[in-house]
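Morning!

This is the sequence you dropped in the shared folder:
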Amino acid sequence: IVSARAQTAPRPSLHFDVVSVKLTHTGQGGAGDEFPVNGTWRWKSITIPGIVAYAYGVSWNRVEGVPKALQGPDPGFDIVAKLPLKTSRQDFRLMLQSLLADRFNAVIHTEVRDIPVNTIEVAKGGVKLRAASGQCVEVEGSASLPAAQHRCHEVVSRVGMSQDRTITWEYSGWSVSMADLAAKLSNNGLVVDDTGLSGLYDFDVKIETHQGQDDFESQSNWNYSVKTAWEKQAGLLIDLSKTKRRPGTVVVVDHVELPAPN
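The structure's back. Tokens below.
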């Protein structure tokens, strides 16, 4: 791997209004909000790599340097943070960076390297996305909306599992760019927009896959289901089994400790 350049992250100047961090030893992965809801960000049993990934806007596998003993899921951390309603996503990340520096004594730098990425391309049959209808609301920050309304430029995902072990993922978006979609799909690895599409779109895509007998079978089933669903329903080619090398940000943790008590 070739490192193009390294940059020490400056100490953030934005902080949460109130924050609680509690050490947990559940030994299980946690769950929480990707972005604050109504001025509150909650996570149960989040790991240090997970906090770093959210704080720097990268996938978990682009976080390096966390000592093995602190990678989780034990230890994990229950976090409740309060912040202004109109906080932007970028400012939220800066607050998380302050949390890491203040409570975990974290020293972190970023590097740009050539890394493997997945891509979004236009499928052979052409795009099947709907042009943006405008039936969404421009909202700043973390204020929630009534169930019948949708936030513009946001991709929402929902997941469920049936008794026959069928896993269903649903992705919906309103006035979404391909960059918005790529960012949403980058949770488990960088996804790059290679469509050349500059418009805004509405879409609903449902992915159904079956849990395999082992991790390899499950991953193979997932890759096939993702490729088939996006191609048939949206006219987009997303092949998770193939990667290309592109410059991407890697976050390196030079130092981190267990947090000070509340």
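Headline: Helices lie at 48-56, 89-103, 178-184, 215-234.

More detail when I'm at my desk.
O.
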